[in-house]
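Researcher: Re-running this chain for the archive, since the previous output was lost when a drive failed. Same request as before.
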Amino acid sequence: MKQWFRNLFGNAPRLTEQQLVRLETWRTIPPPPMAVSVNKMRCVVVDVETSGLNLMKDRLISIGAISLINGQISLSDSFYIVLQQPNASHKDNILLHGIGGAAQIEGVPPIDALLNFLDFLGKDPLVAFHVVFDQTMIRNAISQYLGMSFKHPWVDVAYIMPALNPNLAGNLRTLDDWNGHYNIQNDARHNALADALVTAQLFQVALAQARKKNITEFSGLMDLEKSQSWLNSQSSYKMH
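Model: Regenerated structure tokens:
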């Protein structure tokens, strides 16, 4: 689609021809089947840092991601980027994630940063802890800067772990809770790449537990997540 045509729609992002080619090349990548054992595929564990927790108003600041290839964490296949910000986030926010004002303002221009992320991701499925936040922030940024609706398969470790460990679900809720229980160390909490790495380690725990229940395919994990989400919604409904 020509850039002049896209710009007729008001605030459409202004991509160069080269950027448009990169985006269209990513679009043409065929998605892998989900009914495949996680031990025979690549999936990408992701975490983000933002200017705050408001899904509608706050901005995506950084993305950290690391791949699991055939069930094994691949440290050499990782990704980290800081998106260039129009202005630095609040001081309290900077103290949380450690990305200083200069680093934010001097980051990678958002269009290129997000294209770099898509190049790293390909069409492989995504994994996160509390998917809704990461997914929404990434979707919002891709919509704003690339003019594209980002529809992608995700699985949420925050639902899978309680589904596999119902006896622990009442006491373990946060990523820190679960990691503490399984002695997974994180020396750089709220760094997107460090958080992605410990989420990947927790996901490996989930994969080992799921195999004992004969759940090996990524689609099976997605079904497990949906079942737990439904149970949570029923429990919430009964409480009200």
